[in-house]
């Protein structure tokens, strides 16, 4: 492993924050050393300073993307946080099904989709609600967009193929048997017809949100904890612009909008924090 000096750490953490928003505090040198040392060697560099120069002068973006991929934390699981999923199951999903039953469309954005578990978890709830109403065609007016900055995470999300370790993190046996089939290699494959309701694409949360369209619900969970305060303010200032009137933004259990945005009414449902876009915003 290649050791990183303090000046090199300053250069690398500035580069990382500039390109993906991840903010590394002092004392996190080991993260860069452990996650990027192999890439430094692969690029033929003898130090992180040389590596930084190569990254800065590279014009095709490939090295930048590999650095971001290596530094991104793709921690996820099925139905992560029972409080949030209770709200989704009991309030949001029935409301969405009422809306599509009246002829409207519903769009949902999983903005830090990682390897897809969040988007597919929500898809399962929506599908079960449609089946309970004996109106499976309602799903045709539901669209879920999953985005992430990590190419490798998105590859797994798009393939919808999961190993036994991933399958055992938050997924009930009932849902596993209902929505997955195990192939000859032992990998679990999500329902290929149902997965068409989810679209995944690469997206940097630093970019303009407008091209993504409007959403009834945005899930931005367990990603802002890695960002600087200034980037958080910028991120949450853009969220109201892609939410329909009274649209909802859900954060992770350890995240909050307090002090970052006043564009949302904050309410609670069985301990779940619900951030609803204010009227007139």
Task: Report what the structure shows.
The protein is α/β, with parallel strands linked by helices and 281 residues long. It has 10 helices and 10 strands. The chain has a 7-stranded mixed beta sheet with strand order 6-2-1-7-8-10-9, covered by helices on one side. The chain has a 3-stranded antiparallel beta sheet with strand order 3-5-4. Helix 10 links the parallel strand 7 and strand 8. Helix 1 runs parallel beside helix 3, helix 2 runs antiparallel to helix 4 and helix 5 packs across helix 6. The radius of gyration is 20 Å and the shape is globular. The relative contact order is 0.12. The model has no long low-confidence stretch (mean pLDDT 94).
Assign an overall shape. Answer: globular
Spatial order of strands in the largest sheet: 6-2-1-7-8-10-9
Oligomer: single chain
Strand residue percentage? 15-25%
**Count, helices:** 10
Uncertain parts: none
**What's the count of strands?**
10
Q: Cα-atom Rg, whole angstroms?
A: 20 Å
Mean pLDDT rating: 94
Distance between the termini: 50 Å
What level of helicity do the residues show? 40-55%
